[in-house]
Automatic annotation (TrEMBL):
Pfam families: MotA_ExbB. Belongs to the ExbB/TolQ family. InterPro entries: ExbB/TolQ_transport, MotA_ExbB_proton_chnl, Tol-Pal_TolQ. One of its GO terms (cellular component) is plasma membrane. This is Tol-Pal system protein TolQ. Keywords: Cell cycle, Cell division, Cell inner membrane, Cell membrane, Membrane, Transmembrane, Transmembrane helix. It is found in: Cell inner membrane; Cell membrane. Its main location: membrane. PANTHER family: PROTEIN TOLQ, TOL-PAL SYSTEM PROTEIN TOLQ. Residues 80-204 form the MotA/TolQ/ExbB proton channel domain. Part of the Tol-Pal system, which plays a role in outer membrane invagination during cell division and is important for maintaining outer membrane integrity. It is a multi-pass membrane protein. One of its GO terms (biological process) is bacteriocin transport.
């Protein structure tokens, strides 16, 4: 009887360890693709919102009016959150007349840096998982391959006359594990590199905004508040 050399046929004929390796890699691949689509959507949204807010901010709108608009929203992210926290802290310090310009700016800058850390952490969420899948999947697949080939040759040693048709299915099922490892790893590595670069660009935009916003506030209060 000729052995079924289709993918599913080889899977069902594989040993328990090789099956476990294949199922593990399949699970990692599915989880990776789910994260890839999720992160892609989040980053596209963050990039669009960043561009839109920058245009709004530098259009000459009154900062107090802009703060009121943003505060009215149920949730804020990205540059809106940085602006909201920074302006809120600045207004609080100025209202309470706590110190001079230097104290105002340090407090405002500190509030925005805290928010920056939270926003960056959110953007980087699950990226470490993609990096992990990209690095370990080939080794998991290689382990399945080595185990499958080892079993194939052990079975071959128990017969007096060996033929290629006897060892081919075992080697084929073993090589599938390597292929699945690469299938899980390659998209994860490519996505991680792309997303990490986009997160870095967004973080740079956030940092630049913090400095520009701080300079703007500093210029507005220098004339009226003692240093």
């Amino acid at each position: 009887m000729q052995a079924d050399i289709s993918f599913f046929g080889l899977f069902w004929e594989a040993s328990f360890i090789v099956k476990l390796v294949m199922l593990t890699l399949l699970g990692l691949s599915i989880a990776s693709w789910a994260i890839i689509f999720q992160r892609r959507s989040i980053l596209i949204k963050a990039e669009k919102e960043t561009k839109a807010f920058e245009q709004r901010f530098w259009s000459g709108v009154d900062l107090g009016h802009l703060y009121t608009e943003i505060t009215a929203k149920l949730s804020t992210e990205g540059l809106e959150a940085l602006f909201k926290d920074g302006f809120k802290e600045f207004a609080r310090l100025k209202k309470n007349s706590v110190g001079g310009v230097q104290v105002y700016m340090e407090g405002t800058h500190r509030a925005m840096r805290v928010r920056l850390s939270k926003e960056t952490e959110e953007l980087e969420s699950n990226l470490s998982f993609l990096a992990t899948v990209g690095s370990i999947s080939p080794y998991i697949g290689l382990f399945g391959t080595v185990w499958g080939i080892m079993n194939a040759f052990l079975a071959l040693g128990q017969v007096q006359q060996a033929t290629l048709s006897m060892v081919a299915p075992g080697i084929a099922e073993a090589l599938i594990a390597t292929a699945m490892g690469l299938f899980a790893a390659i998209p994860s590595v490519l996505a991680y590199n792309s997303f990490a670069r986009r997160v870095e660009m967004l973080e740079t935009s956030y940092i630049n905004f913090i400095e520009e916003f701080s300079n703007l506030l500093h210029r507005e209060v220098t004339a009226s508040v003692p240093v």
